Amino acid sequence: MEKMRNYFRQSLARQFVLLVASFLVVFIVGAIALSMYQSSLVASFEQKKNEIETKMKYAQEVERAFNQAFSDVRGYLAFNRKEFKLSFFREQENAQTALDLLESAATTKEDTQFIVKARQFAQYYFGRLVPEAIDAFESGNIQKVLSLSENGGTASIQQFQLQMKTYKNNLNDQLDGTFRQLSNEQQTAQTAFIVFVFFMLFLLIMIARIMTKKIGTPLRALASMAEKIAKDERVHNDDVVHTAREDEIGKLAQAFRKMLASIQDKEETLMAHNEELLAQQDELELQQTELEQALEAMQARERELKRYNDFIQSLSNLLDRQDVLQSIVFHMASIMEADRGMIVLMNDEKTYASFGLSPYGVEQFLTYVYNGLYQRLFEQKKPFVLKREVAASEKGYHEETMYVHDIFLPVLSNTDDVQAILVFSRFGGPFSDEEVQEYVGLTRQISISLQKIELYEQTEQARETVQHILNTVQEGIHFVDRDGNSVIVNKQMADLLQKETIAELEGASYEQWARGLVEQSDAGEKLCDYLRAIIFNGDEEHEPFVYHLPQKRKVMQVYAKPLYRHGERQGTVFVHRDITKQFEVDQMKSEFVSTVSHELRTPLSSVLGFTELMLTKELKPERQKKYLTTIYQEAKRLTALINDFLDVQRMESGKQTYDKKYEDIVSIIEHVVDTQKVNTTVHTFHIQKETDKTIVLGDRDKLAQVFTNLISNAIKYSPDGGNVTVRIYEQNNRLCIDVKDEGLGIPEEALPNIFTKFYRVDNSDRRRIGGTGLGLAIVKEIVKAHEGEVSVTSELKKGSTFTVSLPLVALAPGEEDERDNDDKQAHAHVIIVEDDEHLAALLEAELKDSGFRVKHVKEGKEAIALIEKEKPDAVVLDIMLEEHNAFGWDVLKQLKENDELAHIPIIISSALEEREKGLALGANSYFVKPYQPSQLSKTILQLLLNKERQGEIFIPLPQEEAK
Q: Are residues 528 and 609 in the same domain?
């Protein structure tokens, strides 16, 4: 520390750099504080914005539930359809749930008031108005239904909708107000920034003033001395000031003093020659006296240096703040010959140490440290001495008048601030000016010691912070010096080396820490050679090294970077990364490539081989049929494989669409089982139905794909045959389907990964069984999209059981029959735009059988004219039309741009796989050829029913149902 102070004392430029650096530190800290304040404003705004948006979302859900309930009641009263009544009760629950969610998110009085009004309306509407209307309707009292509507029913609904609209507008106003508040606070932050800039300018002026004072004042003093010498005025050597400075000014003053001394010596030499004879005798007499005084001064100086040495040595050997303060008080009291004393640091804790003081005296001192006499130290920053009469409590057994001398000493920091206060009391005698100056010199040493302690504490805090940062890094970090000794290590590295604490690795030699790593690894000597080449040979070109930890089932990658300081290598930083998942993914990719190559080439070989035979040889009809059957089966196999890839791609990209309807899961499973029976002759299939509640809301084709994959897997992985049992049962209000086989089973370690893409169990028995590892991944995604779950239990050599759990749908008696007959209850008008005559005839026949009125056109322009004229209820549109004057895309765009025709549902029927584009342009559904025509009629009816519920169209029903 003393060297550092001398380093800055010896140069004004260095002092200026120190002041500028301090200025930059203050500027950076202030800028960071303002930046953090700005960030906190944005975070607060985001929180309030999220709260308001949450309430807006729940309010929209409330509005949607009520509007749907209104629509269902109207639909029920208009068409007497039971599904509307059931939908109404579901929406009643949804409305209550949405109100509960909105109440949980409520934060203002307006929120609470709206929720109370909404609940009152819900109680009135759901609990009184609708039940009375339904009872009246079902009893045939239509007049009462109309009366309920006229006598407040419609008005209450309109009033609630007005309240709903007002509340949503209030939420939007709150969001706007929050944004305005953010703008105001940001203006405040900008004002604070301007104030900060002015403060930094003021600080810069103060720095300039300090440097001017340090340079200008001594230069003026030296200039004044030079003028006196030029005027032949008498100038004493002691008049030259600033000779104690070590910078350029001090050197200039010393040179000036030497020059003055040289001039005066020459002048005195001339005078001394005249007085030499007279002074010789006096000089001999005084010589003995001077020698005696010099001896006494030397002895006193020796004692003083010893006390100084003891004091400085005691400070330099301590790093604990309290120990240092106690040592300062003790040694200062010894040097001053004081009877008691105390030191207090001017920090927030008022850290102190005392000598010869009672606890009450210490408490009194700390209480009034900023008042009374001590305030003088903060203002003048100079020591002072007081003489006072000894109080009665201090005299002990003495009765005469006594005096005590108190000395107050400030400890100044390098920025001339009062860092600490020293107060000592002496009963033996006063403090001389020489002693006071001596004590001031000791306070400088105390200041250096306190700064050293502060720097040590800051260094320790910085070291702990760096260690905490390293411990948060997921990789194992290890810094070793040039000899391989461990210097810095984080918690992850300690765990890797099987050490409980980081301290066990601090200072560990290369042999100590490397042995534990090499013994765990399967790389052995290769890993050891890699570490040695980098640490001891300085090899910096090594690629990252991969090694395995068999006991932990981990794959690690280590790479190294040298650390240089001032061009000299200090050591090496090793980073150990856990790449187990990446390694497993790479393995899976390699296996996938080989599997896909095999799965694609095998059926392609059969197709090409049998095709070549049919082209090059004359075959009997039976043989041709056999070969064609094989080609057809292999083509279906390829199609299924490609469809699996496409399904996975669509699911991962979120573009998979589902046409969910109420379906009986039993009929789906029976159809799948019938289809799979033709693929085996050694398996027996069983369907165990243990519940009558087998209706689910789902996509029939996708659910069929789920059970096709599961049952085909049960067949494939039980090559010796056996029973394949499908059990359907109800559990916890969910429909569960078990698919059980008696095959190879699945190892326990493979169960967590069984639904992962491209994963296949590593077993030679299974490798002979074809597959890409995509089937179960597709099953999981489809079941998840249906709000269901899929799980597996298995035992090796005894078989596996896959369980699919789906939400149950409870239907009223007879409703299933109504669902099956929905196709035949609509008499809507449909126009088919299709250039393929055969496909158009097929679609037309299907739709007419389902009760629709159908017209067919082939060209785009003709289709647009017919649609504008007849305004049908739905349009079936092909994209690639025969006439190129208008493609299907053009027809779709023109219909959606026409306000009178934009509401008409459009179902695209195309061989192009451009579902996203069609839906984006406004199509309501998209079918990729080939598809089952019955799906088209069901989809059209579903779209028309949805529009009917929304009040956009009215579908005429058969006379019997209308009654």
A: no
Global model pTM greater than 0.70: no
Residue 614 lies in a domain: yes
Residue 960 confidence (pLDDT): 32
Q: If DSSP states are collapsed to H, E and C, what string results for 814-832?
A: CHHHHHHCHHHHCCCEEEE
Distance CA 532, CA 529 (A): 5
Identify whether residues 673 and 793 lie together within a single domain: yes
Residues 6 or more apart from 779 whose CB is under 8 A from it?
Answer: 706, 709, 710, 755, 790, 802, 804
Which CATH number goes with the domain that contains 323?
3.30.450.40
pLDDT higher than threshold 90 for residue 378: no
Task: Tell me the pLDDT band of 889, cut-offs 50, 70 and 90.
Answer: confident
Residues 490 and 618 in one domain: no
865: nearest Cα among 891, 902, 897:
891
* Cβ atoms 59, 168 nearer than 8 A: yes
Residues 6+ apart with CB under 8 A from 419: 345, 346, 411, 412, 413, 447, 450
Average pLDDT over residues 367-379: 78
CATH number, residue 697? 3.30.565.10
Query: 908 and 838: one domain?
Result: yes
Indicate whether 836 and 796 sit together in one domain.
no
What is the 8-class DSSP label of residue 107? Answer: -
Tell me the per-residue pLDDT of 268-296, one tens digit each, with 9 for 90 and over: 777 777 677 677 777 767 877 887 787 88
pLDDT one-digit tens code per residue, 156-181: 888 888 888 888 888 888 888 888 88
The region that residue 782 occupies, defined by phi over 0 for left and psi between -120 and 50 for alpha, beta otherwise, is alpha
Helices in 764-882 by DSSP H: which ranges?
Answer: 764-767, 775-785, 815-820, 837-849, 860-870
Question: Cis peptide leading into 930, omega within 30 of 0?
Answer: yes
Tell me the per-residue pLDDT of 496-512, one tens digit each, with 9 for 90 and over.
887 878 888 888 888 88
> Could you give the count of Cα atoms lying within 13 Å of 405 in the half-sphere of its Cβ?
13
Q: Count structural domains, the chain.
A: 6
pLDDT at 234: 67
What the block records as the tokens of 2 is 């003393």
The reply to whether 163 falls in a domain is yes
Domain contains 696: yes
Same domain, 724 and 797: yes
Average pLDDT score over residue span 946-950: 65
Q: Are residues 450 and 504 in the same domain?
A: no
Provide the CA 446 distance to its chain's centre, in angstroms. 48
Q: Report the distance separating Cα 500 and Cα 478, nearest Å.
A: 16
Token digits for 841?
């005839």
Quick check: is 801 in a domain? Answer: yes
Considering the domain architecture, whether residues 571 and 616 belong to the same structural domain is answered as no
Range(s) of the domain holding residue 52:
2-216
* Token pair 């249906």: residue: 786
